[in-house]
Amino acid sequence: MELSFINSFQSEWLKKKRSAAAWLTVIGGFFIPVIVLVNRFIDSSMLYAENTSPHVWEALFNRCWQFMALFLLPMGVILATSLITQLEFKNNTWKQLHTTPQRLTTIFFAKLAVIVIMMLQFFILFNIGIYLAGTVPSIFFRNAPYPGEAIPFKAVLRANSRFFLDCLPIIGLQYFISLQFKNFLVPVGAGLAMYTASMIALSWKYGYIVPYAYCALNLNFMKNKSAINPATNIHIWATAYFVVFSILSYIFYIKKKEKG
């Protein structure tokens, strides 16, 4: 069983190479850090003050996440999940896939695992980009010393873990919708509608029940600790939504008569 899953995962991973989703992961991971880096180059007079600040990494991290969490990350997850899930529809290979000696359960979870690992890859690239945005200017400018503050690994890992959990409901629901419809525009349109609803719900005291709102809510909490009811753990809500959506997606996939 384990070997079968590994082989299936490797097959799905190879499929996504050179796909739009693969490029989206790489470009999306570096996009905001590159913009921040270019801005630091343009406004080089501030480099000394920024790099000698005792909170230089926290400032860079918050600046990058401010733009990423509110729009680019949810949209990237919507597009990447839909693209990966619908590769079989695009290539008209669902029937071919289902004739292979693989259980439907293996196929389902291998595809889902590829999406989750791609998301992890995105987070790694994004954090590498933040590190480069902080250190590269010291190579080109004399007034920009290497950042003196040690990287707060625990805080960075904690924040990344929370944002990662907050993306899971989007993955779960987009995976569910993408498996049900051949038209790529359906899951993307549904994702855009849910994202719009989540932005409207941010000011609502029960906005945490909207599954696409957690990245933005977590960002608000980073800025203002009182932005969310302390009794409400949005990360538990996000994880629970992911589990529910994944179970529903699995049931519908297994029970679906026409899978191609």
Description:
Helix content is 75%, strand content 0%. With 260 residues, it is an all-alpha fold. The protein has one domain (2-255). α2 runs parallel beside α7 (104-135), α4 (56-85) runs antiparallel to α10 (185-201) and α7 runs antiparallel to α9 (153-180).
Task: Identify the notable features of this structure and list them briefly.
single chain; 260 residues; mainly alpha; 0% strand; globular
Which helices and strands occur, and which strands form pairs?
Layout: H1 2-16, H2 20-42, H3 47-51, H4 56-85, H5 87-91, H6 94-98, H7 104-135, H8 137-140, H9 153-180, H10 185-201, H11 214-223, H12 234-255
The count of helical stretches stands at 12
Major β-sheet, in short? none
End-to-end distance: 24 Å
Strand content: under 5%
- What radius of gyration results from the CA coordinates? 20 Å
Query: Which class best fits the helix and strand makeup?
Result: mainly alpha
Q: Which descriptor suits the 3D outline?
A: globular
Whole-number tally of structural domains:
1
* Helix and strand pattern: HHHHHHHHHHHH
Approximate helicity band: over 70%
**Topology, number of strands:** 0
Overall pLDDT metric: 89
Low confidence ranges: none
